[in-house]
From TrEMBL:
PROSITE patterns: ACT. GO terms for cellular component: cytoplasm. The lineage of its organism: Bacteria, Pseudomonadati, Pseudomonadota, Gammaproteobacteria, Vibrionales. It comes from the Bacteria. This is Glycine cleavage system transcriptional repressor. It comes from Photobacterium aphoticum. Its main location: cytoplasm.
């Protein structure tokens, strides 16, 4: 056979040495222990994978995290098994959709201030979900103000917002949750 593209011989030689990769999103939650994250990263590396993005948080001897992994398709089963061997953790493995399936978005930070009440995070996140806005991160805190005799709620939502969403209408929808709720949108420069 003659020499093919890139110097490969034969018609099957073009595929030789290539491996199809896939991406997974793995969530974990459970009891923390020393070297846990190092062990999971080492198992990923040993199978030819790499962590693309990870967010790991620890609180009171508990760990929660989300990890996006790029790995050869033929190693996915072994990776799932390696992660599931961590019996103290609740592990979920989710196939990541291809970029073609993802609608274009832009990042927006939404800041909220309100008088605290039960269910506020639920109500705010439900509105975002109903509109179809992806929540990337939520940070909230409650601060007691003894002089006022109440507790104030502050939240910052990192969002992925479709170009089709009218941000003024988003603010109006969020402010319907409670009287006196203040909403401010900060877009990156």
């Amino acid at each position: 056979m003659g020499q093919g593209l890139l110097g490969w011989k034969g018609n099957s030689g073009l595929l030789r040495g290539t491996r199809m990769n896939t991406q997974l999103t793995i969530t974990l939650a459970g009891e923390d222990h020393p070297q846990l994250i190092n062990v999971l990263a080492a198992k990923t590396h040993a199978l030819g994978g790499k962590w693309l993005i990870s967010k790991i948080n620890r609180l009171d001897n508990q760990v929660v995290g989300i990890i996006k992994i790029d790995i050869p398709a033929d190693a996915v089963s072994d990776l799932k098994h390696a992660f599931l061997e961590q019996h103290a953790l609740d592990i979920r493995v989710i196939d990541t959709p291809s970029q073609a399936e993802i609608m274009p978005t832009h990042p927006v930070t939404l800041k909220v201030e309100a008088n605290d009440r039960p269910g506020l995070v639920h109500d705010l996140s439900r509105i975002l979900d109903d509109i179809g806005i992806g929540i990337v991160n939520i940070e909230n805190r409650r601060i007691g103000v003894p002089d006022l005799g109440k507790t104030l709620f502050f939240a910052e939502f990192q969002l992925n917002v479709s170009e089709e969403i009218d941000l003024e209408q988003l603010i109006d929808a969020m402010q319907q949750v409670d009287d006196g709720l203040l909403v401010k949108i900060v877009e990156p420069a």
